[in-house]
Amino acid sequence: MIPEGIGLELPTRITDAPGRPHLDICPPSLQDKDFLATEERISLRPVPFTQPAELPTWDRQPLVYLTLGTAFGTAGLLTTAIEGLATLGAHVVVAAGRVPLDEFGDVPDNVTVRAWVPQAKLLPHVDVVVHHGGSGTMLGALSVGVPQLVLPQGADQFANADALSSAGAALCLLPDELGADAIAELTRQLLREPSYLEAARAVAEEIARMPSPDDVAHQLPDYARTE
Fold it and tell me: Which of 28, 107, 118, 220 has CB 3.0 to 4.6 Å from 111, enough for a Cys bridge?
């Protein structure tokens, strides 16, 4: 369930009791095929959660959302991405996360930078998401059928980028490929070529067919085991 080399280990109580069913929020078309074939899964629709908050405003379309999450964002990488995305004629909303806003200086008029945005409320309005490949942002964007440009930095992000790219719903730039021009060019490609939108919407339909959390909660007693 956890890709090798990302620094996470399963708790002993799980590794000592293999064969138990797993709640799985990953749509089957993106899930590891070996896991699908060998593990007992309880499919569960990923449902985003956000605190009540007002959306930032934007004055043009398309709308591009840029976030590097709460752990992997740096002022340098975000600034590079902003530099490229600002050239597209789109409005760019940036969630800076842990990066202090004063490190960005002056930004172009078509760029809005906030420390935090209500992501689940914003995503249905977005045309492309540029992000680090974290599972929450990835699944949130897929749930509303939005194409993605993934800039993986660590943890499970490289595996997520591979799965999204294989599904045709995203493009990826590896760390040694990053630059303002490259980010702008691939985002432009995502905006112009309908195949990425079609692939993202196909996964959104798949997610919508997955059992809801309420449905799964009522089924969990059927999976209870006694020692």
Answer: 107
